[in-house]
Write a structure and sequence with these properties.
By secondary structure, the chain is an all-alpha fold. 78% of the residues lie in helices and 1% in strands. A two-stranded antiparallel sheet has the order 1-2. InterPro entries: GPCR1_Superfamily_Member, GPCR_Rhodpsn, GPCR_Rhodpsn_7TM.
Length: 304
């Protein structure tokens, strides 16, 4: 049995009291947002102070991933704080929050796919790398990712605002709770389900394909090293923690398969995956490590 767009029905299917549920989500999001900001800001500052780094595709993509995740975490935290303090938000406001969060998730997914392809091309065809990914193409790829994500989610939001047929407030704000507040056969649901079913598997297959080919070369002896093994293992772990919540939080999963404990676990897992991005792609980079040490040394010299 599916959810109805009704507060009483939602509460009846809940395993945790809404006040406690929203409090747990608010605390977890505040901790996650603070941790991610603490890890990301030093990397962003170092990259911004070194324009030469932005000429490399991996650092350009990393910068946009960190900015995207920081904005997404901030919006998610604001939503959690509003629910924790007011205990409910209007359906339309919930729709806008969900659309914004999913838009940043889409940008993150596209950028992660581009980063995986960039690393694959750099390893497999190092001599042709600058030709295949020239600066103009790098900037065009990043611009296309942001534009496509904004267009897809902006279109979904515009359709959703016309199909919402309820004006009351929700005590939970999740896509599977919001979905019944839209017409069951609405264009929005078909649009979101078709887009998710097409885009998400394609991106994950591309990322997994790049990982598999790099692992094959590594175990064949071409790239075998302890550092490479650790890096690929961390990247695989980060993508696993990131991908499962993205699928679980989409419109493809029926509402009756969700539960409060699963939703909380999904959120924590996603936040952990996002927090690993600065560690895996930023702090393990020898170039960024060198720039961070230089920045710390200059800061120490200026203070003395």
């Amino acid at each position: 049995m599916e959810f109805n767009c009704n507060v009483t029905t939602v509460e009846a299917r809940s395993q945790i009291n809404s006040t406690s549920y929203n409090l747990v989500k608010m605390v977890s999001m505040c901790v996650s947002c603070s941790l991610h900001t603490l890890l990301s800001v030093p990397l962003l500052v170092v990259i911004a102070r070194s324009p030469s780094l932005l000429r490399h595709a991996r650092f350009l993509l990393l910068t946009h991933i960190l900015l995207c995740d920081t904005l997404q975490q901030l919006i998610w935290t604001i939503k959690s704080v509003l629910l924790g303090s007011k205990e409910s938000i209007p359906v339309i406001q919930c729709l806008l929050f969900c659309s914004a969060i999913q838009a940043f998730s889409l940008v993150d997914l596209f950028l992660s796919t581009a980063l995986a392809l960039d690393r694959f091309v750099a390893v497999k065809w190092p001599l042709r790398y600058d030709f295949l990914l020239c600066p103009q193409r790098r900037r065009a790829i990043v611009a296309a990712i942001w534009t496509l994500s904004a267009a897809l989610c902006g279109g979904a939001s515009a359709i959703g605002l016309r199909t919402v047929h309820a004006s009351f407030a929700l005590r939970r704000c999740r896509p599977h709770i919001l979905a019944p507040c839209l017409s069951g056969t609405s264009t929005l649901m078909l649009y979101c389900m078709a887009g998710t079913a097409a885009v998400v598997p394609l991106c994950f297959v591309t990322i997994l394909g790049c990982f598999w080919l790099l692992c094959w070369d590594m175990y064949s002896g071409l790239l075998l090293s302890r550092r490479a093994c650790v890096t690929l293992s961390l990247q695989a772990t980060q993508m696993l923690l990131f991908s499962i919540p993205v699928v679980m939080d989409s419109y493809l999963i029926p509402g009756h398969l969700h539960s409060d404990f699963l939703d909380i676990a999904t959120t924590i897992t996603y936040n952990l995956g996002v927090s690993l991005i600065p560690l895996v792609y930023g702090y393990r980079s020898r170039e960024l490590q060198r720039r961070i040490r230089q920045a710390a040394h200059w800061s120490a010299d200026s203070n003395t």
